[in-house]
Amino acid sequence: METENIEKTSNDILIKTIGITKVYRVGDIRVNALRGIDLEIKKGAFVAIMGPSGSGKSTLMNILGCLDVPTSGQYFLNNIDISKLNDNQLANIRNEEIGFVFQTFNLLPRATVYDNVELPLIYSTKKIRDKKKKILDAIGSVGLTELIKHKPNEISGGEKQRVAIARALVNEPSVILADEPTGNLDSRTGEEIMAIFQRLNREGKTIILVTHELDIAKHTHKIIYLKDGIIYKHEEVKDQISAEEELKKMPRLEDSMIINSYI
Amino acid sequence: MRRLLENIKIAFQALFLNKMRSFLTMLGIIIGVGAVVAMISVGVGAKQSVVSSIQDIGSNLIIITPGNPEREEDVGLQLILGGQQPKLKSNDVQAIKREATLISGVAPIVYNSSAITYLNKSARTTICASSEDYLKLYNMDVEKGNFFKKSDVTNASNVAVIGKTTAKKLFGKIEPIGKIIRIDGKNFKVIGILEARGADMFGIDQDDIIIIPVTTALNKLYGLDSYNMIIAQSISDKDINAATEEIRSILRKHRNIKFGEKEDFMIQSQTQILDVISAVTGIFTVVIASIAGISLLVGGIGIMNIMLVSVTERTREIGIRKAIGAKNRDILVQFLVESTVLSVTGGILGILFAIFVSTILNTFTPLKTSITAQPVIIAIVFSTIIGLFFGIYPAMRAAKLNPIDALRYE
Lengths: 263, 410
Description:
The structure holds two protein chains of two kinds.
Chain A: H1 2-12, E1 13-26, E2 29-42, E3 46-50, H2 57-64, E4 72-77, E5 80-81, H3 87-97, E6 98-101, H4 113-122, H5 131-141, H6 157-169, E7 175-179, H7 187-202, E8 206-211, H8 214-217, E9 222-227, E10 230-236, H9 243-249, H10 256-262
Parallel strand pairs in A: 3-8, 3-9, 6-7, 7-8
Antiparallel strand pairs in A: 1-2, 1-4, 4-5, 9-10
Chain B: H1 2-17, H2 19-56, E1 61-66, H3 72-80, H4 90-99, E2 103-118, E3 121-130, H5 134-137, E4 142-145, H6 150-155, E5 159-162, H7 164-171, E6 180-183, E7 186-194, E8 209-213, H8 214-222, E9 229-234, H9 240-254, E10 265-269, H10 270-313, H11 315-323, H12 328-364, H13 373-400, H14 403-408
Parallel strand pairs in B: 3-8, 5-7
Antiparallel strand pairs in B: 1-9, 1-10, 2-3, 2-6, 2-9, 4-7, 5-8, 6-7
Helix pairs in contact in B: 1-12, 2-10, 2-12, 2-13, 4-9, 10-12, 10-13, 12-13
């Protein structure tokens, strides 16, 4: 009975960290960015990590995103111990298991929307069938089919972030890590982006959102509060904000016509 | 393989985005490769035309000239005591004719430059005086009329065989055969016109020439008693060295040169002349190769410089690619491909530039050029190596970038 329970838990859990610490050296000074993070995130969860600047949330994000390794502690993603992997293996994990969405979009400026979304497939070690269909599906799911031949400087900020989301989706990763995805957007566009995340979560995607805005964090199911490198509070969101409801309340802008038509 | 094609595509996109910068960077390679391939084409062309004009002269020729620069007294005496210099005379030719067994023909040659006139037209041209064997030795033929015969040489007849250019200069559209021309005031009857031969390796028109019997030239025109040189032909190319030695011993004996004493004449076979030419072109090639090395080095440093700039400019792009799953190797290959594309494109443009220059030289100057496969292949191989060699450091810097720092780079 007990073993069955453990197995059930471990199958459900996507991310598990045990006592993660991260120490940076800045000259002679040691900076304890993370001081023991224990975290469990289930498959299909929608979690916000909140905290003031310097709380260690970016460091945690980098470690969860396999861009960095912890100084000590263990990090399991899909039951794989990430802390033991080398650079190439980490690159594979980033490619196959993680989809990044950044505050500054981080699209390749010279590449078209299509080429930007294709990028994760280029670096995939797996043989990918129906590559073109995958790319078009990902672009379609964020409603940018009409813009596939445009370059980032020809589209709006909201559209750029939707390209970034399409890029994060194209390899069907286990988890989407969004770092302040609405930080560079006006409130309506930000709400539109949150609507996409909420829809993706309803469709079963695991999403981790890093933000310092409570209004944005309240779109998720659970908020983890970080301060001085430790988790000092985590709580379920009781009065979850629905982005679609919010959008209905907002004055309609011309370009919001498009987004409402596919949500 | 597909990844490599993808990388080449990315590299070309990056190069096209900075057209001016890419072009300026490639310029070093373009000029280096272009200059070298063009110069080699001139060198190869020159060598080919030297070799072919030497073989044109006739095959298996042995050339005997008076005096020997290796004999100290010749060098000094010729200058001070003009008259005392060693000479090649009729009896030398007779001795070779009589005694040599490996020789199929021998002829004396006297060169001079004379004023020639026909009616009111006059010109200056090269007079070549020889014997009736001249045509055979030099592999030539007359286009019209006849060459002079042995009897003309014996009798010192006033007959002339003229080249096409000379014919045109003096006669224009008039038929020259049978006409009387004046060479240094003496009347000569034109009995034949030589086949056209074109320019020689130095661009000198070989058709601006008049050939007359050697006896006529010595006795009636110039009052000389010696030849500029004697030409002999060995019976086959295998025998040319033996024939050379045979002539040497005949002349030594005939000219009373004691054992151990140096000869007062020079004897060279065509093979020896060709050897000297290939030695000279060998030095030429080494000089070109060093210039090539230096210019490609400079071009390569230019590529390295611009690749370092490119890596810095695209730090964020590198960060994005790494975050999305690019391995260090992927980034390394991307930048290596880019630097190689840069240098190979430069190399190819350089080759096109060289072909252009070589065509111009061929068309508008007497220089004959020839682009061969070898320098083209070497140029491409070398520019690839340059791209890889000077690209590896910038590419490694790109590959080693930490994705977190690279993503934050402004």
